């Protein structure tokens, strides 16, 4: 079966790229269930005045959906994989979006120490969503990516909402630092990587920042936290 040049999904157009969209991803896009949980949930907590900071932006689908369909004020995407960062920029351009920004970097918690050159290794895997800071699984490439504190990214973006899908990095992301203007945090918990102790660490850190679990929007391993 031939691959479509462009996938159309919930008002967002995604161009095919053999280096990015694997057969597994293509099948999900064709079925219309790619990032389905996020598409169903984001309209329930995002509002037009929101400024969104998305960590782990993938194909740029959710950021495009938020900016184009929901109509949020602005979206800043943080994506560590440089090839994906370039693809996301192209996706945003295809939608005609002018209220988005893509940053190729890694977000660090407030208590983390930056390396002397302010970069760190990022391990690229297939499919792309398996890429992470974890060196413990087979990687097809390693890229040195700029380090940025989460609190600085929030301040630069003026973010009121976070969307986080970073393959286990959520475990320590919220320790220390300042979440500033953020009032909503939608995070995917990768339990196979962070285990029960990591889930507890994530909930504990967000509780210390004054956030609570919103049961109405949360579903399975994807959780919404709101500021009290």
Primary descriptors:
alpha/beta, seven-stranded mixed beta sheet, 12 strands
Short description:
The chain is 32% helix and 29% strand.
Characterization of the model:
This protein has 228 residues and is α/β, with parallel strands linked by helices. It is 32% helix and 29% strand. The protein has seven helices and twelve strands. The chain has helices spanning 23-31, 36-45, 61-70, 82-95, 150-157, 170-173, 191-208; strands at 6-9, 12-15, 51-55, 74-78, 100-103, 105-108, 119-124, 141-149, 161-164, 184-188, 211-219, 222-227. The chain has a seven-stranded mixed β-sheet with strand order 5-4-3-9-10-12-11, with helices on both faces. It has a three-stranded mixed β-sheet with strand order 6-8-7. β11 (211-219) and β12 form a beta hairpin. α2 runs parallel beside α3 and α3 (61-70) runs parallel beside α4. The termini are far apart. The model has no long low-confidence stretch (mean pLDDT 94).
């Amino acid at each position: 079966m031939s691959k479509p040049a462009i996938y159309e999904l919930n008002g967002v157009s995604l161009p095919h790229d053999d280096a990015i969209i694997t057969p597994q991803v293509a099948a999900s896009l064709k079925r219309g269930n790619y990032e389905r949980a996020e598409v169903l949930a984001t309209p329930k907590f995002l509002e037009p005045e929101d400024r969104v900071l998305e960590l782990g932006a993938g194909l740029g689908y959710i950021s495009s959906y938020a900016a184009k369909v929901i109509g949020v004020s602005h979206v800043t995407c943080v994506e560590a994989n440089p090839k994906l960062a370039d693809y996301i920029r192209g996706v945003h351009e295809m939608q005609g979006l002018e209220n988005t920004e893509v940053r190729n970097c890694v977000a660090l918690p407030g208590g983390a120490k930056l390396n002397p050159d302010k970069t760190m290794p990022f391990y690229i895997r297939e499919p792309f969503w398996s890429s992470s800071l974890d060196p413990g699984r087979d990687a097809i490439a390693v890229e040195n990516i700029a380090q940025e504190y989460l609190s600085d990214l929030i301040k630069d973006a003026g973010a009121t909402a976070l969307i986080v899908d970073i393959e286990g990095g959520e475990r320590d992301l919220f320790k220390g630092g300042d979440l500033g203007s953020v009032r909503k945090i939608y995070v995917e918990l990768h339990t196979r990587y962070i285990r029960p102790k990591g889930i507890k660490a994530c909930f504990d850190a967000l509780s210390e920042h004054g956030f609570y679990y919103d049961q109405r929007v949360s579903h399975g391993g994807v959780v919404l936290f709101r500021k009290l």
